[in-house]
Amino acid sequence: MTTAAQRLTELGITLATPPKPVANYVPWVKSGNLVFVSGQLPLADGKVTVTGHLGAGVSVDQGAAAARQAAINIITQVNDACGGDLERVVRVIRLGGFVAATGDFTQHPQVVNGASDLMVAVFGERGRHARAAVGVPSLPLGACVEVDAVVEVR
Amino acid sequence: MTTAAQRLTELGITLATPPKPVANYVPWVKSGNLVFVSGQLPLADGKVTVTGHLGAGVSVDQGAAAARQAAINIITQVNDACGGDLERVVRVIRLGGFVAATGDFTQHPQVVNGASDLMVAVFGERGRHARAAVGVPSLPLGACVEVDAVVEVR
Amino acid sequence: MTTAAQRLTELGITLATPPKPVANYVPWVKSGNLVFVSGQLPLADGKVTVTGHLGAGVSVDQGAAAARQAAINIITQVNDACGGDLERVVRVIRLGGFVAATGDFTQHPQVVNGASDLMVAVFGERGRHARAAVGVPSLPLGACVEVDAVVEVR
Q1: What is the pLDDT of residue B129?
Q2: Considering the domain boundaries, does residue B14 fall inside one?
């Protein structure tokens, strides 16, 4: 059976140092078997990969790529919460997807799929989660998407 | 004592086949005693019942009716998670209400009451929940409201 | 060791009667060891302290002060959930910060810090939490910020 770490390698994804929050809080908190992960931006090498709004210059493909990057950062935090052993992940419970979007944008699900698809690619059935995807007028650092998560671990 | 199923019948509400998510995720995930339900749109017969924005053409009554429809879909998913026995619902813990709204709209609570009132009508005291109600610029499929939920079951 | 109640006194904060929700739901629900607190507005003496939008007239300092007031109301509800003994708080698990903001606003974290900083000031290490901070076009009663919470108690 392929582990989550092996799938990350196959996907060419290297987990960097967990991105630090941009404010006075912590990246994740564990309560019982649940890890609550702070909202993650599409940060790579300390920079937001895609800024702007869906429906006004940012394409669905660009948004989905940004959501995938936010999901990589979620996995990075979960890996930290699991002491480096992603096999301790029992189930990705829920993702919250916030998409910077105009008033007439309707394809929020397609954008947040960038995050959802990665979870299933990395964790298989354990990666299938509940989800909410909504629009927002703006996000920290001008990011086009933010994703938070609740993950069950052992 | 009246069961939740009996109250649904009294209210003339028939639970249809659980609406499928419009993207790559699942409608609910159970972790311990908690069921996390994905954001539900006001879908009926596969169509969004009310599109548009509160404060720009959609009335509070229309919005509340849409929130009630989203809540019917939440109950449908919870029913599925409970194997068809809504008496396994211990408590509706939390609803998240996202209302597509203009910048000067202020009656989000009255809109989300459409969902909250139904929960209490169906589950009685078990239906009384914590809640957040906020505006959003846009939602999937142009819906005027989206509601997600956390429900404790046995 | 200083208790949370002592820190509140040192900060000159008096917990008033818990603000009632402005609609048909309850201020908090406890499930297992988790208390889910409803979205709190920056209400003081029954009035919203700061209305309007960040990026359009409301300054970051004003927004942070409003977030702090919302956090006082969260602590008031948690105190109620703990039967008046804040030492039963094991950990503030998560805050959700919704900031009424324009499309080009980017300093949501600095606004929500008003809530995060208070949690750490009152609860110390127990107050360090996961968090999501996002923009919204509008909030109930025209408030500039709304904050909800998940808190672990014993």
Answers
A1: 97
A2: no
CA distance C31 to chain A (A): 13
Contact C95 A27 (CB under 8 A): no
Contact B23 A113 (CB under 8 A): yes
Q: Transcribe B37-74 into DSSP letters.
A: EEEE--EETTEES-BSEETBEE-HHHHHHHHHHHHHHH
Q: Residue C1's pLDDT is what?
A: 76
pLDDT in tens, C55-77: 999 999 999 999 999 999 999 99
Q: Give the mean pLDDT of C129-137.
A: 97
Determine the residue of chain B that is closest to C145 in CA distance.
Answer: B134
Contacts of A29 in chain C (CB under 8 A): 91, 93-94, 128-130
Rounded to an integer, what distance in angstroms lies between the CA atom of residue B66 and that of residue B62?
6
**Beta carbons of B117 and C24 less than 8 Å apart:** yes
Residue partners of C67: CB distance under 8 A and separation at least 6: C42, C97, C99, C111, C112, C113, C114, C115, C145, C147
Instruction: Report the chain B residue with the minimal C-alpha distance to residue A137.
Output: B137
Question: Residue C86 above 70 pLDDT?
Answer: yes
Low-confidence ranges of chain A (pLDDT < 70): 21-23
Whether B13 is in a domain gets the answer: no
What average pLDDT does the structure give for chain C? 95
Q: What is the pLDDT of residue A99?
A: 98
Q: Is B21 within a domain?
A: no
Q: What is the pLDDT of residue B22?
A: 63
Alpha carbon separation from A111 to A100, B125, B136 (Å, rounded): 10, 38, 16
Interface of B with C (CB under 8 A): 32-34, 55, 91, 93-95, 101-110, 112-113, 116-117, 120, 128-137, 150, 152
Domain count, chain A: 1
Kindly state the greatest CA–CA separation across chain A.
45
Q: Which CATH number does the domain housing residue A109 bear?
A: 3.30.1330.40
Is the predicted pLDDT of residue C11 greater than 70, yes or no?
yes
* Alpha-carbon gap: B82 to the closest alpha carbon of chain C (Å): 18
Range of the domain at B56: 32-153
Q: What is the mean pLDDT of each run of 10 residues along chain B (154 residues)?
A: 90 84 84 97 95 98 98 96 96 98 97 97 94 98 98 98
In a domain, C4, yes or no: no
Nearest-Cα residue of chain A relative to residue C149 = A36
Q: Under a CB-based contact definition with an 8 Å cutoff, are residues B91 and B151 in contact?
A: yes
Q: What is the ipTM of this complex?
A: 0.95
Which residue out of C20, C22, C25, C141 would a mutagenesis test of the B interface target, given it has the greatest number of B Cβ atoms within 10 Å?
A: C25
Neighbours of A154 (CB within 10 A): 9
